[in-house]
C-alpha cells in the first residue's frame, strides 16, 4: 500500500510527453477537416429547435443577444482549448491537458466524465435521430413498437428503439473503417446543413415583420397559451418580453448549443499540423456556429411572433412551422433535410472523440490497456470504438436518455473548467529546466531574475533569506522577476486555488439569492461585494507574477482574465443543474474511482517510470 505522502504524490504525478514523438494513429486531417468536424458536431438539430424554444419561453426576440452572450462565453473556453491544442497536440482532449498540468487523479476524473459525456451524447442524438425519422412517417414506427414490444419499466424507454441502435452501430462501423473516410462523410453532410441554414436566413428575410420585435402589452392581454393544461407565461412584449433575467437565463440555455467544439481537441494525433490546425479550427467553428444561430434566431423571431412559437414546440422543431405560418409549407421538407444531416454530423461528433479518450487513457495505463489496441490497416482504436458503439447503442435502445441529458453537461463543464485552470498553471509555472539540483551537495539554485540566484542548503536558515522575499513576491511581484522561479510558481498556484474557491463561493451566493444582484438585500449584497473585491485582488496579484517565456503557435489573450471568466461561467452553469443530476454523477464517479484505485493507480505509465531503477530498461507498452 502507498504511505500517505507517497499516496498524495501518486495522485499528483504528471504525464511527461514528447511532443515531437510519432503516433500510432493516422495523421491525415487538415484544418478544413477539423473545422468541418467542429461545426458538424456543434450545429446539429439544435439550430432548428433551440432558437424557437428559447425565444418562446425565456428571451423573446432578445434570443439573438442570448446567443451572442453564449458565444462569448463559449469562446472563453474555446481559446483555452486552442492554447492547449498548440501546447499538447495529443489525443485525449481535456484528459491529456489536465494530466500534463494538474496531475493523474484529476486527469482520470476528467477523462471518466468525458466518457460519460460522449456516451450519453451519442445515445441522446441517436434517440433524437430516431424520433425525427418517426415524425416524418407520422409516428408509425413508434406506434408499431409500443403495440408489439412495450416496456413498462420506470426510468426506461416505453419501447426498445432498435432504429436508434441500428443508427449507432452503422456509425460505429463507419468509424472503424478509417478517420479520413469518417471526416469526409462529416464534411459533406456539414456542407449540406450549412446550405440549409443559409436557405433559411435568405428565404426568411423575404417574410420578416419588424413589428414582431416590438409587440405591445395590449396585444398580449387577451392571449393565453396552455401546454398540458398549464398556462404558459407570454411575457410583456417588446424586445425584452421576459426582462434582462430572462435574456440571461436564455443565454445559459443557448450555451449548450455551442458544446461540441471540443471534439477538435481529441484529434491531436490525427491532425497533420495540430499546433496550428487545432487553434484555427476551434475559433473558426465557433464563429460559424454563432453566425448560424444568430441569423436563424433573428429571422425566426421576425417571421413569427415569439409567443406563437410556444405551441409549435410540442409538434417538433419549431422552424418548419414558422415557414408554414408565412405560407411556405414546402420549406418544411428542405429544413428536414438539413435536420437529418445535422443529426448525422452531431452523432459523429458525439461518438468520434469517445474511443480516442479511451485510447489515450488506456495507453497511459489508468484504465484497461486492451482498449488501446490499434488496427494496423486503418490505424484507428478499433477495440475502444467497438465497445463505445455497443455501449452507446445499448443505452439508446432501452434508456430514456432525456432524463440523463444533464449529466452530459457536468462532464463538459468540468472539462472546460480544468482546461482553464490548466492554462493558468502552465502560464505562470516554472519550466522544469529552470531548476538545477545538485543531489550530491543537496543544494538548489533558483533563478530570481536579473541574473541573481539564491542558494539554499540544509544548513541555511530560510527565514533569514526568504521571508522578505516571499512577502514581496506575494505583493504584486515587487521583486520584479521576469520569469518564474520556484517561489513565484508556488505563489501563482496558491492564487489560482484561492481564485477557484472564491469563484465557487461567489456563484453559490449568487445562486442562493436568485443570481440577480438587483434583488439582493443590503447584507447579502455586501457579502457579494466583499467576495468580488477579494477575487479582483487575487487576479491582480496573479497577473503581476512572472510568466513562462516559452512561445507556442497560439496563446490565450488577456490571461488571467479570459480563463477566470470561463471558470465563472462554467461554475454558474454547473450550479444551475438539478440535485438529482449530481446524485447520478456521484454514482458514475463511484464506479470510476473503483477502477482507478484498484487498477489505474498501480498500472499507470507514470508509476512505472517513477519506480524504475537507474539504468533499467523501460518501455511504454502498446497493446
TrEMBL record:
Membrane topology: Multi-pass membrane protein
Localization, UniProt: Membrane
InterPro entries, per database record: AA/rel_permease1 (IPR002293), CAT_C (IPR029485)
Transmembrane segments: 34-51, 63-82, 94-115, 162-179, 191-208, 239-265, 277-296, 333-359, 380-401, 407-426, 491-513, 525-542, 554-575, 581-602
Primary localization class, coarse: membrane
One family name in Pfam for this protein: AA_permease_C
Any one annotated GO CC term: plasma membrane
A biological process term (GO) from this entry: L-arginine import across plasma membrane
Keywords: Membrane, Transmembrane, Transmembrane helix
Domain Cationic amino acid transporter C-terminal: 554-604
One annotated GO molecular function: L-arginine transmembrane transporter activity
Protein name: Cationic amino acid transporter C-terminal domain-containing protein
Organism: Blomia tropicalis (Mite)
Amino acid at each position: 500500500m502507498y504511505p500517505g505522502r507517497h499516496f498524495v504524490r501518486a495522485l499528483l504525478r504528471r504525464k511527461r510527453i514528447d511532443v515531437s514523438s510519432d503516433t500510432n494513429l493516422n495523421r491525415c486531417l487538415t484544418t478544413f477537416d477539423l473545422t468541418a468536424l467542429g461545426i458538424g458536431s456543434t450545429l446539429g438539430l439544435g439550430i432548428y429547435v433551440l432558437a424557437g424554444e428559447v425565444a418562446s419561453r425565456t428571451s423573446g426576440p432578445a434570443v439573438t443577444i442570448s446567443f451572442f452572450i453564449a458565444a462569448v462565453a463559449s469562446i472563453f473556453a474555446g481559446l483555452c482549448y486552442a492554447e492547449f491544442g498548440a501546447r499538447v497536440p495529443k489525443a485525449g482532449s481535456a484528459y491529456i491537458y489536465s494530466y500534463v498540468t494538474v496531475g493523474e487523479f484529476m486527469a482520470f476524473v476528467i477523462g471518466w466524465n468525458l466518457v460519460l459525456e460522449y456516451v450519453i451524447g451519442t445515445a441522446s442524438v441517436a434517440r433524437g435521430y430516431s424520433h425525427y425519422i418517426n415524425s416524418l412517417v407520422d409516428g408509425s414506427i413508434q406506434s408499431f413498437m409500443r403495440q408489439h414490444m412495450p416496456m413498462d419499466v420506470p426510468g426506461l424507454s416505453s419501447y426498445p428503439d432498435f432504429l436508434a441502435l441500428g443508427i449507432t452501430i452503422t456509425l460505429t462501423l463507419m468509424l472503424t473503417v478509417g478517420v479520413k473516410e469518417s471526416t469526409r462523410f462529416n464534411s459533406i453532410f456539414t456542407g449540406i446543413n450549412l446550405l440549409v441554414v443559409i436557405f433559411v436566413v435568405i428565404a426568411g428575410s423575404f417574410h420578416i415583420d419588424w413589428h414582431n420585435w416590438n409587440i405591445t402589452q395590449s396585444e398580449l392581454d387577451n392571449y393565453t397559451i396552455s401546454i398540458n393544461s398549464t398556462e404558459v407565461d407570454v411575457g410583456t412584449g417588446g424586445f425584452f418580453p421576459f426582462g434582462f433575467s430572462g435574456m440571461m437565463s436564455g443565454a445559459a440555455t443557448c450555451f449548450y448549443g455551442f458544446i461540441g467544439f471540443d471534439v477538435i481537441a481529441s484529434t491531436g494525433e490525427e491532425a497533420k499540423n495540430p499546433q496550428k490546425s487545432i487553434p484555427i479550427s476551434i475559433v473558426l467553428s465557433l464563429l460559424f456556429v454563432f453566425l448560424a444561430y444568430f441569423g436563424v434566431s433573428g429571422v425566426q423571431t421576425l417571421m413569427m411572433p415569439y409567443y406563437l412559437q410556444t405551441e409549435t414546440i410540442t409538434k417538433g422543431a419549431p422552424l418548419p412551422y414558422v415557414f408554414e405560418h408565412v405560407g411556405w409549407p414546402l420549406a418544411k421538407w428542405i429544413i428536414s433535410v438539413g435536420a437529418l444531416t445535422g443529426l448525422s454530423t452531431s452523432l459523429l461528433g458525439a461518438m468520434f472523440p469517445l474511443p480516442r479518450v479511451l485510447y489515450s487513457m488506456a495507453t497511459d495505463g489508468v484504465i484497461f490497456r486492451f482498449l488501446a489496441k490499434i488496427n494496423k490497416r486503418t490505424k484507428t482504436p478499433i477495440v475502444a470504438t467497438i465497445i463505445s458503439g455497443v455501449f452507446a447503442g445499448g443505452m439508446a435502445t432501452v434508456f430514456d436518455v432525456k432524463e440523463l441529458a444533464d449529466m452530459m453537461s457536468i462532464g463538459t463543464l468540468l472539462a472546460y473548467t480544468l482546461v482553464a485552470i490548466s492554462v493558468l498553471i502552465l502560464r505562470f509555472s516554472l519550466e522544469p529546466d529552470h531548476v538545477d539540483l545538485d543531489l550530491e551537495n543537496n543544494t538548489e539554485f533558483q533563478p530570481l531574475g536579473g541574473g541573481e540566484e539564491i542558494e539554499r542548503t540544509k544548513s541555511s536558515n530560510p527565514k533569514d533569506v526568504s521571508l522578505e522575499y516571499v512577502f514581496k513576491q506575494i505583493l504584486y511581484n515587487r521583486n520584479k522577476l521576469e520569469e518564474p522561479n520556484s517561489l513565484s510558481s508556488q505563489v501563482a498556484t496558491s492564487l489560482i486555488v484561492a481564485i477557484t474557491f472564491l469563484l465557487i463561493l461567489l456563484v453559490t451566493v449568487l445562486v442562493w439569492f436568485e443570481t440577480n444582484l438587483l434583488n439582493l438585500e443590503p447584507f447579502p449584497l455586501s457579502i457579494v461585494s466583499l467576495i468580488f473585491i477579494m477575487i479582483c485582488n487575487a487576479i491582480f496579484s496573479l497577473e503581476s507574477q512572472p510568466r513562462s517565456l516559452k512561445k507556442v503557435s497560439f496563446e490565450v489573450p488577456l490571461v488571467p482574465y479570459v480563463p477566470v471568466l470561463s471558470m465563472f461561467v462554467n461554475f454558474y452553469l454547473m450550479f444551475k443543474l438539478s440535485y438529482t443530476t449530481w446524485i447520478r454523477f456521484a454514482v458514475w464517479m463511484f464506479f470510476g474511482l473503483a477502477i482507478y484505485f484498484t487498477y489505474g493507480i498501480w498500472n499507470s505509465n507514470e508509476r512505472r517510470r517513477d519506480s524504475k531503477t537507474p539504468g533499467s530498461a523501460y518501455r511504454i507498452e502498446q497493446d
